[in-house]
Specification:
The chain is α+β, with helices and mostly antiparallel strands and 196 residues long. It is 26% helix and 28% strand. It is built from five helices and ten strands; from the N terminus they run ββαβαββαββααβββ. One of its GO terms (molecular function) is flavin adenine dinucleotide binding.
Length: 196
């Protein structure tokens, strides 16, 4: 685990086609800690390996997501028609296909700043822009609570569907227009104060 940034690896016997489970960073360090404290000869690393979920390459994303959620796992092994390992699919992979890129602590991300087009009237912001920070900067006061933490998530909540460039809606005293969208991800939104 020290030689790469991953928190989960496939454990296998003899060949990668014989995956026996998933070993997490946390479980591996728990194994090392218990082993050093107890000096037990009976303690095996395989005792700390999580069950592997095998899936076919043609599984739909919604079925895969449901299976992963039901089993509370973050990684699956995709097998070919001969039972050999074709690859892996992670929960992050599935979610990124459905809602756009997400970033973790190993990714280097620059959150784009909000651009003021016309003071107190018109703004352009990245879909990744933090929602509460955006509301604060444009002076939008609300007591509503949102599950979304980004502008992109807020737009998805308001539209209740996958948005496209040109889609627009009004919230409080502001209109929100999607100016750039790639696939399922909202790249840029134009925010304009509406006349009262």
């Amino acid at each position: 685990f020290d030689s790469h940034p991953y928190t989960r690896i496939i454990a296998y016997e003899q060949s990668i086609d014989n995956a026996i489970g998933i070993l997490t960073y946390r479980e591996f360090h728990q194994y090392l800690k218990i082993k050093s404290e107890s000096n037990s000869e009976n303690l095996q690393l395989t005792d700390f390996i999580q069950e592997v979920l095998y899936v076919p390459p043609m599984i739909t994303l919604d079925r895969l997501l449901t299976k992963m959620q039901n089993k509370n796992i973050h990684m699956t092994v995709v097998v070919d028609e001969y039972g050999g390992m074709k690859g892996i699919a992670t929960l992050e992979d599935v979610i990124e296909v459905l809602v756009g890129n997400i970033w973790d602590e190993t990714d280097h991300v620059i959150i784009e700043e909000i651009e003021v087009i016309e003071e107190d009237q018109s703004y352009s912001a990245s879909g990744r822009y933090p929602l509460q920070k955006l509301f604060s900067e444009i002076g939008l006061e609300t007591s509503d609570s949102f599950e979304a933490t980004t502008l992109s998530g807020f737009v998805l909540e308001q539209l209740s569907r996958i948005p496209q460039a040109g889609d627009t809606f009004t919230y409080k005293d502001y209109s929100f227009t999607i100016t750039e969208a790639k696939g399922n991800f909202i790249d840029e939104v134009l925010i304009q104060k509406t006349a009262k």
